[in-house]
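Q: How would the structure tokens look for this protein?
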Amino acid sequence: MTPKNYQEATVLFQKHIHILDKADTWSKTGGICGICAKRIQDLSCKTPDGIICTSCSETVYQSFANRQEIASWHYSRFLYALSEKGPLQLRLTVLYRYAESMPIVEHQPTFDKDAMYRLLVLNLNYRTNHPLAQTVRQLTMTACIQTGDPILPYLLEHRNNPVAWQFYFNIIVCVGMIAPGSKIALEFFEEAGRHPVPEIREKVASILSRQKSPLAKKIRKQLLKYADQMQSSDIHPVSVPAAFRVQQPLFAQDQKKAVIIPDNLSPLESVIAEVYSTDKLKLIFSRYLESLFQDIEFQIKGSFSINKLKKRQLIWAMAQTFSEKDRFDQLLSTLPQGVIQVLSRLTWEKGEHSAHSFTEPLAPPIIMVTEEMHYGKTISVESLNSAYVIIPVKNEYHGYQSFLLQSLGLKLFLPDLIRKNLKQYLSPPEGYTLTGQNAVEKTEFVYEDRDQILGQIHLIHTYVTQGNLKYHKNRIKLLKNSLRDMAAFCGIQEFYTTPIAETEFLKTGLIIDFLKNQPIREHQNPLEFLRQIFHYFFSDNFSKSNYRLYWLLFHLKGLHNLYSQYYEDRILKSERPVREALFGIVEKLSPGMWYSIHSLINYCRYRDIDLNIVDQSLADAYLSVDIKLDKINRYYSFRTANISPSIYQEAIVLPFFKGFMFLLAAFGVVDIAYNYPRNDAIQKKSIDYLSVFDGLRYIRLTPLGAYVMGLSETYAVTVEKENALIVLDEKRLLIHLDGPDRIKDMILWQFSDRITESSYKVTYDSFLKDCKTQTDIEKKISLFRNKIAEKPPSIWEDFLKDVLNKVEPLIPKPDLVVFQLKNQTELITLMAQDEILQKLIMKAEDYHVLIPAKYLNTVKKRLEKFGFFIHQLR
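A: Here is the predicted structure in token form.
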């Protein structure tokens, strides 16, 4: 079995949990795990739906536990779950959700807390042949440590009982984590230090080495002396069975040697050094890492103390924990469930996350609220719970900070190198694998092209590329009338049947932007023509095309700033990986299956798929949006916000991704299900959405789309192509079209005027319309020969030659200057009779004279002799 989805497979195996419960159903049979799809090396369990490995079985049990309605359980069910007869599924449910379980049972009348605590402690000695026995013991230890001082009496009930030494060892660890310096604990350690098992004595000595009280030092000194006597005597110490070392790697490690830590930091260590301060690393070590390492691994003079550890050693310990699966698994067994949830989300979701974005119930809560005095007033101050000290945090304005910062502006994150390591150990979240749906929730609109584009593509492409579009003065925005004319002429079915202003010609506009300036020539087969367009779009040569994906962000202000050639390289650098990523996403879709936009975005987020279509620094510097304010005050109803990292995802990635899917729908590559645009996160002023694409909910790859994208090799379709014959009259400048053909009709419109349904008349006016230069005329003649007739009848040849001959009939004479004489008798007489002036000027009608530029100064001086002052000739 190969499940389509990790989460789906996990749920599937839950119905076989009664089989997984039995120890005798586990064996070393090998095979492929039905959840993680990896080859199984250790124990596995066979079920009717496939084989499951030990690691994935833990995920199944945890998922099963999370689905149980424990709030309705009677306390007797909790007691039964932890008892000797309790089934593993219930036992793990209580242990996984122990923090929730205690508040539930404590409020029930007649609840026996003593019985609950005693049963919990006994689970430290849960020993069966089941591969998850170790998980039970580790979860029990975490539960005991979380319970704290109240559990101590029940742990110490076994101090004088002849119990298995492994059970005794686990009790020592719990007491050492809960209250290592208390008097009763020190008395217990004094007794335990004389245990015949050397690993127990070593653990006690390690715990005491961290205590500074005189009594602790005295007991440790006595125990070390006793240990020397044991080694020098003939008494052979009890050895720890190898099997126990395998089952209990957390608490019974083999004796290690001191580690020589190099001065140079590895890449992972460099990242850790950057985001964790020394104080924070000490807090993490004392709280979570101490039990993962033996004291001897650190070169410390004298007794071990965390305060003696240098930052380099703490960095090494942290790096080891993030790099070694065994240590990291041990860490998880000591982390509270809420910390694991946050750590997992930060691992799989790149970026910074506000502390308040973790809205799911967390145990313990991530935000702590305390009352503090501020200028004489009591205020509530929020801070990050110290249990989350292992999570790096950053204040949006103050850089890296301690975990006690106020939550305002507090961002939680994991550096990419740490995330890469942890992804090897943490189970991927639901949505990591794409899963299609046969049906989806009802939406206001469903757009299905149904291969209409194949009958339109040549017509649309010709319309776009042959100068039929009219733009505003900025040459960027199309005139609405031009959009309307194209939609009507080409028969384009728009996305919204009852559009709002911004959606009225949305599809037509997307098609125009995509097709204009495409370096593609018409092909006879529209199917291959469409495929070639998208092949080119996703090829490495796309930079030659003028189309840019960031054009889909027309909801933002400042987009024109990115048109500069100066930013071309940065734009291409961002766009190349995004185009590759988009193709990779479409490649994963199964034709005919629906996919939600939410699941596609999560798929990209969990796999670090790059959808950053605009460099974030450029977006922050040049792009902005007018955001509607939640509460309208008397002065402002909106604010202009730069596209900072905090809103980049919502303002750029989501609108762009949805816009691209609308673009694919315009060409029949996908079907889409959508509503009127609506955005509850960010809204532009005066409207209730940010981008016109906000309403998109689902997409579905079409069989045509699979072929166009190169995902299938064949696609059977019959396209009825209009192919009328153009007939030129040999005696008059008339053209006849012998059938309906909108492409040829559009071409003929550029040269002629329609006089009947199928007849066109060519005149000088009709032929020269839209021509502004001789180059325009030459292009028009070339288009006529390419589209109408290469060698037309003689009357047409004469007409084309005549058009060229009549170009620029007026020859400008830049070396002549024209003047009109004032109505003065003396001036007119002088111009008419003076022998010198007669040689320098030429007369024209209505008292105009033409003077060659080279004679202007001579004429000026001659007139001055007769008292005429001429300023404009200076």
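The longest helix spans residues 645-666.

The two ends are 97 Å apart (CA to CA).

Upvote if useful.
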